[in-house]
Design brief:
- Helix 2 runs parallel beside helix 3.
- This protein is α/β, with parallel strands linked by helices.
- Strand 1, helix 3 and strand 2 form a beta-alpha-beta unit.
- It has seven helices and four strands; from the N terminus they run ααβαββαβααα.
């Protein structure tokens, strides 16, 4: 490959990858961030939570409190003002629940002037979890019909009363008799397969020349 083309291609790839890194995305999102005058709190959950929280605190200079919940071995160091927690992924564990409770406690007593930065990445559904307490009902989210339209041709299921029942296969009168699916070997006739002479003809042995 031409050295110049290779160098340009490498530069394009590096630039593309850097542009979608979680910390870079957070920095871009916070470029125009302006606190309202109250506290700035940070909650980050997911496998990239530490990188996002670290970038946010660097961009803002400081936060008034924060909680990071990420996968084991994903915390890369301390973040000023932020409690970094590691927990189970993909299966939540007791540390997932404890860290989530810590994050929920952090955002209690908010005022209209306070700002909460909630940074979520892949893995957050397992890491940011709280079990149901005794007597609690699971939260049910109702989706408006206009947001739940499904392509009729691919996914439409007809009403139950329009579905025809398919009767079972007829029972065999005599299960010992051949079904006709397998061939009757005793009555099979041997067929002669004609082979194209030009493509498949093998010459007599005495006409074959040996190749050194």
């Amino acid at each position: 490959m031409n050295p110049t083309l290779r160098r340009d291609a490498d530069a394009i790839i590096r630039s593309s990858l850097n542009a979608v890194l979680p910390d870079e995305a957070v920095r871009r999102a916070l470029n125009a961030f302006a606190p309202r005058g109250g506290r700035v709190l940070l909650v980050a959950a997911g496998k990239a939570a530490w990188q996002m929280a670290h970038a946010a605190v660097e961009a803002l200079g400081r936060v008034d409190g924060g909680v990071v919940v990420t996968k084991y071995d994903h915390v890369k160091g301390e973040i000023p003002g932020v409690s970094c927690c590691e927990a189970g992924h993909p299966v939540p564990d007791k540390n997932s629940f404890a860290a989530t409770e810590k994050a929920l406690a952090l955002v209690q007593g908010l005022t209209a002037e306070d700002t909460v930065l909630f940074l979520l990445s892949g893995g957050g559904s397992a890491l940011f979890e709280r079990p149901l307490l005794p007597g609690e009902e699971p939260m049910v989210v109702e989706i408006p019909p206009e947001d739940a339209e499904i392509d009729d041709e691919l996914h439409h299921l007809p009403p139950k009363d329009e579905v025809e029942e398919i009767d079972g296969l007829p029972e065999e009168e005599n299960p010992d008799e051949p079904t006709g699916i397998l061939p009757d070997e005793e009555n099979m006739e041997t067929e002669t397969l004609e082979i194209d002479d030009e493509l498949h003809h093998l010459p007599p042995e005495d006409e074959v020349e040996e190749i050194d």
